[in-house]
Amino acid sequence: MNRTVSPFPDQKPGTSGLRKKVPVFQAPGYTEAFIQSIFDSLEGIEGETLVIGGDGRFYNREVIQTAIRMAAANGFGRVLVGQGGILSTPAASHLIRKAKAFGGLILSASHNPGGPTEDFGIKYNISNGGPAPEKLTDAIYARTQTIDHYKIAEFDDMDLDRIGVFEAGGMTIEVVDPVTDYADLMETLFDFDAIRTLVAGGFRVAFDAMHAVTGPYAREILVRRLGVDPALVFNATPLEDFGGHHPDPNLVHAKALYDLMMGPDAPDFGAASDGDGDRNLIIGRGIFVTPSDSLAMLAADAHLAPGYKDGLKGIARSMPTSGAADRVAAKLGVEMHETPTGWKFFGNLLDAGRCTICGEESAGTGSDHVREKDGLWAVLLWLNILAVRQLSVMDIVRDHWADYGRTYYSRHDYEAIETAAANALVAALEQRLGSLPGHQVGSLTVEKADSFSYHDPVDGSVSRNQGLRIFFKGGARLVFRLSGTGTSGATLRVYMERHEPDASRHDQETLTALAPVIEAAEALAEIRKWTGRDAPTVIT
Ligand code: VG1
Ligand code: CO
Fold this sequence. Notes:
Layout: E1 2-4, E2 18-21, H1 22-26, H2 30-40, E3 49-54, H3 60-73, E4 78-86, H4 89-98, E5 103-107, E6 119-125, H5 134-144, E7 149-151, E8 164-168, E9 171-176, H6 180-189, H7 192-200, E10 205-208, H8 214-225, E11 233-234, H9 255-262, E12 269-272, E13 281-284, E14 287-289, H10 291-301, E15 314-318, H11 324-332, E16 335-339, H12 347-351, E17 357-360, E18 364-367, H13 375-389, H14 393-404, E19 406-417, H15 419-432, E20 440-441, E21 444-451, E22 454-455, E23 462-463, E24 468-472, E25 477-482, E26 490-500, H16 510-513, H17 515-525, H18 527-531, E27 538-539
Parallel strand pairs: 3-4, 3-5, 4-9, 10-11, 10-12, 15-16, 15-17
Antiparallel strand pairs: 1-7, 2-6, 5-6, 8-9, 12-13, 13-14, 17-18, 19-26, 19-27, 20-21, 21-24, 22-23, 24-25, 25-26
């Protein structure tokens, strides 16, 4: 049946779908209007398959029931839904590809907190398993401006906990095991025997699932298939509110793991993932591996894993990610691509065979095995490399720095600042960009400054205003951009990096090594003046 609904004018497309507070999604007709706007923007869904799953956060089950009824009324022939409403983002991407589905709805707000007054999100992925490209997210947004009704079938809630095939509203609904297919895919890419041998030999692996979606995946893959000690798999039961924490695998929110890894009884390898399982944090005994470095190191050694034994077609990174991976691509003699923030920009490159491994500084790494970033994939590739090289994480990192130089890197986030102030800061800096080259800031001299535009080499589309970049003589770089995933006010992200080729200078503290770049950020953008903040909320 058709029900009337009002358009909702202020929902600009974000970095990954629509993210709002739960009460916003609970407003009558709101969720339905967004889902209908997605369906209205797709062509040819009649009789097709739709994958639905989420990270298990509060409101997941309710939205899944609504989405199933709406899929039936909109003419889908089949829905595949993860048991309990669960599918990690990479597992959903894989399922879309494996089932040759038309697309999928992924319900998550990723690393944002969950609960009745916390965050929820809805994202649409296309048939390649990847996030909708900008053209489609723009179309969905345009539809939200004019939508006046939605279609919904009337049938009882489905039992999401029972695996099986059901019929309702003229549509087939299959409740599937969310873990097995994904775990099997991982076994095709990595040498599980080698990792099992490593673990059996006393190599201790710790994993923090942060009470989010990777718990069941980690139990199956790490514990059951690889023999990892279950006592070192922490917070493996998904909770609707993630135990009241942010399921964000960084040094602030995964501090317990960090402290363990820096402590006297540290395991050999520590990792964590986020709410929806697409991010990864890697910490060796006594050493945190920055995500930008991790991307470079995984790319350099990927050929040691069976799935990548023929080498890489290319590497891609988001613009704010450090240039460490570029040096690996240059040495391997493969293409290097620099895209805007957000996984949707990697899809075309992966589909066209222009890159094999992709990554973002925000703890996202992945490959052409799916079309999303993949937290456990990165953990397994690290373990495969460690098993083959028989070195510690610390030694692998130091070797890499010795070969390629070290790229010091840090991101400063100013969360929940006033939107108007954030926009004004960016506008003021943007206006000055043209006058910056040659300008002296402390000990640094600006070489070049611009606003990043991306020209997609595959489909020719152009994405503008993707962040302000300031390059200094000698290779340091500063980037400013506003987050597209926050749900309260604005978040300013400042990204700093500096390459240090001299191995005798690889032991500096990151913030010391970056001090001139950090000072330049304040001098150029006047962050204090605009935001009223003395310090960032999160430093990663
Ligand atoms: C952030 C990260 C970005 C990532 C995005 C979605 O976006 O910076 O790299 O792709 O989150 O990740 P933003 O616009 O807030 O900077 V996930 O794991 O939250 O889906
Ligand atoms: Co995520």
